[in-house]
Specification:
The protein is α/β, with parallel strands linked by helices and about 200 residues long. The chain has helices at about 1-25, 30-55, 60-75, 80-90, 105-115, 135-140, 150-170, and strands spanning about 100, 125-130, 145-150, 185. A 4-stranded mixed β-sheet has the order 1-2-3-4, with helices on one face.
Amino acid sequence: MFNRLKFAIVIGSTFLTALLVIGAVMGDSSAADGAYRQLSVYTEVLSRIKSDYVEEPDIKLVTRGALQGLLESLDPNSSFEAGVQLTTELLREGKQFTALIAYDDMTALGALRALKKKGLRVPEDCSVIGFDDVAQAGLSVPSLTTVRQPMEAMGSLSAGMVLEAIKAVDQKKDIPVMRKKIPAELVVRESTWALK
């Protein structure tokens, strides 16, 4: 579904760009003026959002986060490795626990590996829950219980909020502050079981 959304965005963007180019080549100044007006409205929306809702970033934190993200994108196993390492540390410290909830599915899969290495059974000794419902979650042994985010609904809602902001600026109104909750879905698989 996410790939379909990305495809639709790329097609839509390409279509709009083509219309702008055709309008410029054909010399229809009203089309070009309209396009430039929409672009200026969009720019104004972004600048208002930045000035009203975004704090000045701490450049050191931003740089560190960007580098970490870059390294993770180059090595898709990095969160898996982090799951192994963090779970191994917990076990080494002798912490008693019967469940782990990981930041994402790859970290949870790393936790599964560390627990198995230590001789612990999942879910009998420790339940494990991930987040995202990546493809590997359903393929692991045991299959991973996870939280599935409604990505398509989130993208649609986000696009609607941006359009509302553009409309507000175009009508010389304040950009509405919106908070929306979209329910996630718990996908129960083999890595968890009910307490007795």
